[in-house]
Structure formats: structure tokens, C-alpha cells
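C-alpha cells incoming
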């Protein structure tokens, strides 16, 4: 397989003629003349995908291959789109055009003759829990400034602790109580007391892919939030703990073992109103499930692209009917308009939007936001500063 790249890379393309006009002209040329015309055109393109105006997005590829497909947030990571093919002799030019919101951000990969890979014509690469992805940033997309480390900003420290290390094999592999933790300690900790705590599901990935310690450092330095402690919790058996047969056992572990241990070891505020539990995807479900069941421990909960189930609605409805949900609860929800779409019953944006409406129907205050993004760390990390400010922001 031969692959050709003829791009001088930059962030956004300035196209001298409309892409549609270019494609129409190439299709009208004799096959033997197309390669030269394509190469000449591509040599004027400063990056790929080609962004035309505010909303036109053209994916392009050029090489001695048979098929090129695109799979990513635009496709819900389910059914790849096949790129249109123009034969240019021994090589082929491929393209696919989308109209997208001007402030959208997407992850994607291409599939070349059956092999999935990064787009070699795109210099933007986003870290993710599934390996690196190629990234699209439309002209109206503005990344949060809090994601980037700053010089002269005091930094918190990360402590590594092992919970219940005395439990050994073979019991260790069956116990939810044995797991490593990372604890963020804010700058100036020795002079502080009664600190709020945020418990973060998929915690180690949140450090790696959402840069949460950096976000907290910057927000504290800018006086957007008060100092806090963050507990980063990695899953052991993610599916079983978050939504499977171990979810109640895991909920009990969080509320009755982990929280008391953190309160004993660190200078925390032990009020439920000063504890927050957050998560993404099934971790969002787990966080909502835990907090709605145990408002005696947590009164703040955040879910990003949360998995929403009928059971979750039933729990909320039952608790609300019995006046068991304190009015002081704070609930944060966000979801991407290009989130996972497995089938009509498992469309994340529709389910999250419906859940927000359901909470409103029960007069349960909450924050809900939809963004032009997908089911990726690239999306979730952009909202981390907003979520933290919602929970811990200083009053004006």
C-alpha cells in the first residue's frame, strides 16, 4: 500500500476556490490528467481536513489504496462513512464533506483498506483512553485556557496511597476495597482546614487525559474556586462496579469506607454539602446512582455523557416522592450532541436531554449543557473548569 502526502501543515485551511468546484473540475478531466491537477491543488492546501468558511468540513486523502473510511464522533463510532473516490490512474483521490457547527470539536480515525489509523494529513492529535485520535477543531471552537500548565502558578501535590494493602491474593482479586488512589493536595495545605473534597471516578484517566490537577491549580490561582482536595479513584472492574452486579457493593465502599478513610487522613470538611462525586459515561451513572441513593454522604454530583437508565429515573422519582432529596443538592450534567448513538434506545444525547427534562418536571434544580462534541476525553476535559466552578466557585 502506498500513501502520498502533499500538505504543508497549519491549523486552518485557506482555500482559493470552493472545494465543490475543485471536485467538479477534477471529475470532468480525463483520468490521465487528474493526478497532476489533484497534486497541484493539494500543494496549495495548508492542512487537512479542509475547513471552508465556518461550517464546511472536507476530509481528503490521496494514495494508491482501494478504500478510505471515516469513523469518529460524527459517526457515533458505530457505522463508518465511506469516502467518495475519484480514480486518478494508479492512484485515487478520496473525499467526504460534512456541514457541522462552527464551534464543533471532533475525534476521528480513518480506515485505509481495512486498517484503522490516524489521519496522516492532520497534525492535530487528541489523547484519549482508546489511544490517540485525529482531531478537528472548527474555527469557532475555543479551548479552555485552564487546561494548560502556567509558569509561576503554585502547584498542588499528588499523593499515592494503597487502600487496604494487607489484603493479599487470592482475596485481593475479589475485593473492591483493594485499589490504589491518587490524592490531590492543594498548595498551602499546611495552613488550610475544612477543605471540600471531589471524588473522581476513572480518576487516573482523568489525570492523564483531562489534566484535572492542572485545571485545579489554575482555577485556584485565578481565585475562581477555593482550595480543595481531589480523590482520584481508578476502577478495578469498571462495568461490574459502575453498572453491573457489584454496583451496590461499590456504592457502599465509596460511602462507608472510602469517604471515612479520607476524612480521617486529610483535613476535610465532613459535611455532605462539601463532598462531590463525578464521573464520565458509566462513571456518570455510578455517580448519580450513588448520590441519589446516599445524599447523607454526597450532596453534589456531576455526570458527563452519563449512561442514563430507566432504573435511575425510578430511583429519583421514588426519592422525590418521599421528599428524600435535599433541596441543597447540586447536580451538573453535560453531553455531546455527537455522543454515542448505538440505537434508538441508547442515544446518549437524547437520554441525557430527557433526564434533564425529567429532573425539571420534578422541580429538582440542576445544570445541563449540550456541546458540539462527542463521547471523548477531548470533550469532557473542556468542561472540567466549568464543572469545578459550578461546584466550588467563589461567590461574587
Amino acid at each position: 500500500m502506498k500513501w502520498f502526502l502533499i500538505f504543508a501543515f497549519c491549523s486552518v485551511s485557506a482555500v482559493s476556490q470552493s472545494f465543490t468546484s475543485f471536485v467538479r473540475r477534477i471529475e470532468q478531466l480525463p483520468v490521465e490528467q487528474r493526478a497532476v491537477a489533484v497534486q497541484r491543488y493539494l500543494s496549495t492546501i495548508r492542512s487537512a481536513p479542509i475547513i471552508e468558511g465556518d461550517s464546511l468540513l472536507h476530509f481528503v486523502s490521496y494514495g494508491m489504496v482501494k478504500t478510505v473510511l471515516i469513523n469518529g464522533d460524527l459517526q457515533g463510532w458505530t457505522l463508518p462513512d465511506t469516502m467518495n473516490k475519484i480514480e486518478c490512474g494508479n492512484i485515487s483521490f478520496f473525499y467526504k464533506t460534512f456541514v457541522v457547527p462552527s464551534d464543533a470539536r471532533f475525534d476521528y480515525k480513518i480506515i485505509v483498506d481495512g486498517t484503522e489509523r490516524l489521519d496522516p494529513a492532520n497534525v492535530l492529535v487528541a489523547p484519549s483512553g482508546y489511544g490517540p485520535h485525529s482531531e478537528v477543531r472548527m474555527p469557532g471552537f475555543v479551548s479552555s485556557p485552564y487546561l494548560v500548565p502556567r509558569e509561576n502558578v503554585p502547584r498542588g501535590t499528588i499523593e499515592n496511597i494503597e487502600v487496604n494493602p494487607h489484603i493479599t491474593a487470592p482475596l485481593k482479586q475479589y475485593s473492591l476495597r483493594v485499589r490504589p488512589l491518587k490524592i490531590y493536595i492543594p498548595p498551602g495545605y499546611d495552613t488550610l482546614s475544612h477543605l471540600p473534597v471531589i471524588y473522581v471516578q476513572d480518576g487516573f484517566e482523568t489525570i492523564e487525559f483531562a489534566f484535572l490537577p492542572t485545571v485545579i491549580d489554575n482555577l485556584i490561582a485565578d481565585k475562581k474556586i477555593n482550595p480543595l482536595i481531589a480523590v482520584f479513584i481508578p476502577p478495578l472492574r469498571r462495568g461490574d462496579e459502575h453498572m453491573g452486579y457489584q454496583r451496590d457493593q461499590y456504592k457502599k465502599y465509596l460511602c462507608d469506607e472510602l469517604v471515612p478513610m479520607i476524612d480521617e487522613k486529610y483535613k476535610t470538611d465532613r459535611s455532605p454539602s462539601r463532598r462531590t462525586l463525578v464521573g464520565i459515561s458509566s462513571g456518570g451513572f455510578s455517580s448519580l446512582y450513588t448520590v441519589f441513593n446516599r445524599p447523607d454522604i454526597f450532596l453534589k454530583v456531576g455526570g458527563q455523557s452519563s449512561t442514563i437508565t430507566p432504573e435511575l429515573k425510578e430511583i429519583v422519582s421514588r426519592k422525590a416522592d418521599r421528599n428524600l432529596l435535599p433541596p441543597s443538592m447540586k447536580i451538573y450534567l453535560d453531553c455531546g450532541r455527537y455522543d454515542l448513538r448505538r440505537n434508538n434506545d441508547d442515544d446518549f444525547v437524547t437520554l441525557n436531554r430527557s433526564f434533564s427534562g425529567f429532573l425539571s418536571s420534578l422541580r429538582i434544580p440542576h445544570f445541563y449543557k449540550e456541546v458540539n462534541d462527542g463521547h471523548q476525553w477531548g470533550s469532557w476535559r473542556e468542561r472540567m473548569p466549568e464543572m469545578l466552578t459550578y461546584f466550588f466557585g467563589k461567590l461574587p
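note: Residues 76 and 340 are 5 Å apart (CA to CA).
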